[in-house]
Amino acid sequence: MPSVILATASYDHTIRFWEAPSGMCYRTIQYADSHINKIEITPDKQYLAAAGNSHVRLFEVATNNGNPVTSFDGHKSNVTAVGFQKEGKWMYTGSEDGTVKVWDLRAPGCQRDYECGAPVNTVVLHPNQAELISADQAGNIRVWDLTANACSRELVPDGEVGIKTLTIASDASLVVAGNNKGRCFVWRLADDDTSRFDPLQKVEAHPNAYILKAQFSPDARYLATASSDHTVKLWSTRKFTLAKTLTGHQRWVWDCLFSADGAYLVTGSSDQSARLWEIGTGETIRQYTGHHKAVTCVALNDLADVPH
Length: 308
Fold this sequence. Notes:
This protein is an all-beta fold. It has no helices and 27 strands. A 7-stranded antiparallel β-sheet has the order 4-5-6-7-8-9-10, with no helix packed on it. It has a 4-stranded antiparallel β-sheet with strand order 3-2-1-27, with no helix packed on it. Strand 1 and strand 2 (14-18) form a beta hairpin. 46% of the residues are buried. The mean pLDDT is 96.
């Protein structure tokens, strides 16, 4: 198994695994049940989670078994967000059914169920592993305190404009929300109260376009924003000034992820391809082609230290 696990999913009902350096596809999983909204690789690189309508399926990464080993059922609509606690003990999901759920990977059913009241577009886990932050189509951001088992904060940064994406810096200093009017909202998180958001900046990142994904680099020096305007923009987080615009995709760019060292970015687009970009030059260094429809999500795990 490659040490770098790179996967893409598409409206063509397949998940493809790629050799990152060569661009060769070495495995395809057929996913006939529904389209796939999000994919995520577990921290130990053992499983890939695929979020569809209205379930999450877990596939083995290191085998050729095309059947899921587990299915998580309980949502009533599209699952739009999926992620894992840092040791892989539990999984969190968000759905258009208006809920955020937490699932123990070793037990049946969901252990936590939070009602947001509007279709959930994105959920991220605070680095402290004790809070989930969700954002929805009605423009609300909520912080869910997993210890208190309650909502500890609600924010509405831009009225009823839907928020598509959230990202939190690895040192938990900054949170960014990207919305359907091309705006990014930046907050500084308080040290003493992790649910306190201090407004820092508003960035007109992609005027007259949707921000489909926002992602901090691992060292939080850059913020990447992927958009319906066919570009990905890299912002310096010092003052949120534009550092680079990555051009090459021919249609909407749905997803973007940094490599663990922050030197590369992987993107997926409606132009049926994924790309590997070098951050230093802003150039495409590899294209991943083979999907027959839009590439809606990408997953990458290239961490050297696998937790045991």
